[in-house]
Amino acid sequence: MEFNDLMTRPHHEKGAELNLVDPNTGELTDVFLTVLGSESDAVIDALKEEETARVRAMFSKEEFDQRGHDVKVVLAMVTDWRGIKQDGKDLKYSPAKAKKLFEQTPAIRRQVRNFSGKPSNFRPKPLKD
Fold first, then answer.
1. Half-sphere exposure of residue 5: CA atoms within 13 angstroms, side-chain side
2. CA atoms of 13 and 84, how far apart (whole Å)
């Protein structure tokens, strides 16, 4: 195996495309999200912030806003999209539009988090036995 193939972080920083599954039908869509891997700086920082808030809430007996933090983490993971339309026209990615989508669609948030956390999604090529 090549030395550079063992270094996973650059691939996590570059991101990979997630083909979204329709939350209503369970079928693949023509929508693709560019997702950073769990080893990228942005994702690591967002996950640390989420965990810090969870621990702080636990010790202060305040309520932890799981949905709010889940949306923040997924926003850190997604950097672009294609295939989403509004009024028949391609909808350009923006954090504000993404936030609105993620706030209203927990199934998409789960898909993004699962995809980001799977290292094989960020391999440059399949591993050889």
1. 8
2. 23
User: Who's near 129: CB < 8 A, 6+ residues apart?
Assistant: none
- Exposed e or buried b for every residue in 96-109, given b needs 16+ CB within 10 A? eebeebbeeeeebb
Place of tokens 């023509």: 30
Q: Quote the DSSP letter at residue 22.
A: P
Residue 74 burial (10 A CB sphere; 0-12, 13-18, 19+): buried
Judge if pTM exceeds 0.85. yes
Provide the pLDDT for residue 125: 62
Q: Average per-residue pLDDT in the chain? A: 91
